[in-house]
Design goal:
This protein is an alpha/beta fold and about 270 residues long. The protein has eight helices and ten strands. The strands form two sheets. A seven-stranded parallel beta sheet has the order 1-10-9-6-2-3-5, sandwiched between helices. Helix 1 crosses helix 2. It starts with 10 loop residues before the first strand and ends in an 8-residue tail after the last helix.
């Protein structure tokens, strides 16, 4: 029955009390996934949005209720130009926030090789590795204030694949809080493309705070457009958006989302 279920709307919006509630909800979905499919493939995002999920997974593992020993994971994106092991690299972020607290096997988490001599070939190799794994089962996503997912900035093709991207000034300013200065924020990244992201079986986007409200509304209720890359979630058959009240404040159908979630049959889960 689970495999036959489809959400009432292509993007299912769940409005929660805050990040911890979202972490519990999405952490439960990950736990359920690896329980029925121990070799599941996860897509890992970085930044502040997925932190509550990672902390929830760490807590479940510490309590003995979760193992990721058979799972694999792929990073959504990575900076170009930072030295290997740099504390602000996304591989270091995932190592510190998740990998150190659960039981992934050595080498089970992979990111694009941003130190390769041939970055274009490295992008193609990353796509091939994702395909060889069987594809991503559950992809975590955040959203930028301009509607980007991964580092697919406005104007990115909705069919794009893993590639090198130049960051906009707005995105660099948003990320500057993690660096000593704006000048220290890299200008280039390797990111999975929108088309790559859409091939994951379940997309889960998390957003919190009023600064994300316009982007969330445009992604969920606006037209599907390359100017709001996250709007491509509307094209996906199984997409979940978990937001707090502040991030949901610009949603015209917020009451509808609350009602459908409140009366959703428990067996459906996410």
């Amino acid at each position: 029955m689970r495999d036959e279920w489809r959400p009432e709307a292509l993007v299912e919006v769940v409005i929660v009390a805050g990040p911890d509630a979202a972490g519990e909800l999405v952490g439960g979905a990950v736990a359920a996934l690896v329980s029925r499919k121990p070799g599941a493939v996860l897509g890992l995002a970085t930044g502040s949005s997925p932190l509550a999920v990672y902390r929830n997974l760490a807590g479940r593992h510490a309590a003995g209720g979760l193992t990721l020993a058979g799972a694999q994971a792929f990073l959504l994106d990575e900076y170009v130009g930072l030295r290997a092991g740099h504390p602000q690299s996304y591989r270091s972020f995932v190592a510190g926030e998740l990998e150190a607290h659960v039981d992934f096997a050595p080498g089970a988490i992979r990111g694009p090789d941003v130190h390769a001599d041939d970055l274009l070939a490295a992008c193609d190799a990353y796509e091939a590795a994702i395909r060889a794994s069987g594809g991503v089962d559950l992809q975590l996503l955040g959203i930028g204030t301009d509607g980007h997912i991964g580092f697919n900035e406005p104007g990115s093709s909705l069919a794009s694949r893993t590639r090198i991207k130049t960051l906009t000034q707005r995105t660099r300013q948003d990320n500057a809080r993690f660096f000593a200065s704006l000048d220290a924020v890299p200008r280039h990244v390797v990111t999975q493309g929108v088309g790559t992201i859409l091939e994951a079986r379940h997309l889960v986007l998390l957003a919190f705070g009023s600064a994300k409200a316009n982007a969330v509304a445009a992604a969920v209720e606006g037209p599907v457009t390359a100017m709001v890359p996250a709007s491509a979630l509307q094209l996906h058959p199984h997409a979940t958006v978990a937001v707090d009240e502040a991030a949901a404040s610009r949603l015209r159908l917020a009451d509808y989302y609350r009602e459908t979630w409140a009366h959703k049959p428990p067996w459906q889960g996410l």
